[in-house]
Write a structure and sequence with these properties.
Elements lengths: L3 H8 L9 H8 L5 H22 L1 H5 L2 H22 L10 H5 L9 H11 L4 H18 L11
Helix pairs in contact: 1-2, 3-5, 3-8, 5-8, 7-8
């Protein structure tokens, strides 16, 4: 599930559309669809929690690569939720965090906190644990807009 195709239509500038096909599709994207918003939040909010839960498996193994991968996935999902909450189309991950950081609905110091978590990631259990804790705190802040869906261990 992704809003990318709708976002591409909503934001594109047609160079040639003699039959108005693209323009007709663009009209359908002017209002962010309620169903897409809810489906995106439901799907990716759970994925944030799941990614952070499985990231904890990296702690016992001092596996920074696995931990970093799971942490990145959680942030990518946070971005999906933030874009949906703000009814903006997410086209890709590149630059998404900086854009999300400017939204009206966004955890305080979002980008700084995420960057802090990633600077902590090193091949030892303590730093991986600290990085995950920062991202969990951001998840908690974010959940004020959609409700807590954190998975139990």
């Amino acid at each position: 599930m992704s809003s990318i195709y709708m976002g591409e239509i909503a934001l594109c500038q047609a160079l040639y559309d003699p039959d108005g096909v693209l323009e007709a599709l663009k009209v359908k994207t002017e209002l962010y669809p309620v169903g897409l918003k809810q489906a995106t939040i439901d799907t990716f909010a759970r994925e944030i929690s799941f990614s952070l839960l499985v990231a904890k498996k990296a702690i016992a193994r001092d596996d920074v690569v696995y931990g970093a991968g799971c942490c990145f996935r959680s942030v990518a999902c946070m971005n999906q939720v933030l874009f949906a909450l703000n009814e903006d189309y997410l086209l890709n991950e590149k630059g998404a965090m900086a854009l999300a950081n400017r939204f009206a609905i966004c955890p305080e110091d979002y980008q700084q906190r995420v960057e802090r978590a990633f600077t902590l990631l090193a091949a030892d259990a303590k730093s991986i644990t600290e990085a995950i804790a920062i991202l969990e705190a951001i998840e908690d802040d974010l959940s004020q807009w959609y409700g807590n869906r954190r998975l139990a261990m």
